[in-house]
Design a protein that fits this description.
Elements lengths: L14 H9 L39 H6 L4 E6 L5 H19 L8 E6 L6 H14 L3 E2 L7 E6 L2 E9 L13 E4 L7 H10 L1 H6 L5 E7 L7 E5 L5 E3 L2 E4 L2
Parallel strand pairs: 1-7, 2-5, 2-6, 6-7
Antiparallel strand pairs: 1-10, 3-4, 4-5, 8-9
Length: about 250
């Protein structure tokens, strides 16, 4: 029994495993780290250990801090083009990969959700996840995002990543996602958030460490400093502001 003084911690891939996965992806920084694959901003590049950026003023966080965070519910907030989509998508994916490794015998029929106020608002995150997975495995995916799906074969069936629209909160039913990424969360209604919170209850009970909800959103005036780190789209990555709640 979980008491109010206890908190389930998010299960993610061991650090060495996710770093091996990152090295197989497209280079984040073709100039200084062309052979390092995906590189989140942080103290050091996880592949070559070279320093990436100067220290940030409090309370700002590196992308690496967010990816390491173990809260089951978290909000990633920042300004326009700050790297929120790519960070949220990677945290979402590394949680799925951890789940498939830990519960591979029970993963058939389970789902993960990409949610936004409209299907269109999930397109960037859906594209990142689809591209990353296609680089390391053969998958059945949809081209459209309205709705979209990525099917991963597991023992006994399939695990599915789905896009869901929260325009009508009552349609968020019938499934209990093992992880949910909410894109542009500032546009989400309170009813939709309440519905998402109730939907993950089954997953949190059956699969301790999962049933996570990650929210990302744009909040202007949060940009203070920029990094010399390029994301996969070759845009400069601005710092990310993180608030956490459980």
């Amino acid at each position: 029994m979980v008491t109010v003084t206890q908190r389930q911690e998010l299960h993610q891939l061991p650090r060495e495993d996710i770093e091996l996965f990152w090295k197989q992806l497209e280079a984040s920084d073709w100039n200084d780290h062309p052979e390092c694959g995906f590189v989140p901003t942080g103290e050091f590049c996880p592949a070559c250990k070279k320093t990436l950026a100067p220290s940030l003023p409090h309370p700002y966080s590196y992308q690496d801090d967010y990816l390491r965070d173990t809260h089951l519910t978290s909000l990633l907030a920042g300004g326009e083009q700050s790297g929120k989509s790519i960070s949220g998508a990677m945290k979402f994916l590394q949680t799925i990969l951890a789940f498939l490794g830990e519960y591979q015998g029970r993963a058939a029929g389970e789902v993960a959700w990409l949610v936004a106020n409209s299907y269109e608002l999930t397109s960037r995150e859906f594209g990142y996840i689809k591209d990353w997975l296609e680089r390391v495995s053969k998958l059945k995916t949809s081209i459209a995002v309205d709705p979209g799906h990525i099917i991963i074969r597991v023992p006994g069936g399939v695990f599915t990543i789905k896009t869901r629209s929260a325009d009508n909160a009552q349609t968020l039913r019938a499934e209990s996602p093992i992880v949910t990424l909410v894109c542009e969360a500032a546009l989400l209604s309170f009813d939709a958030y309440e519905r998402l919170s109730s939907r993950v209850a089954r997953s949190r009970a059956l699969f301790p460490g999962y049933g996570a909800i990650f929210l990302t959103s744009t909040y202007p005036n949060n940009i203070v400093v920029s990094f010399s780190y390029s994301n996969i789209s070759d845009r400069k990555c601005i710092l990310v502001v993180k608030n956490r709640f459980e």
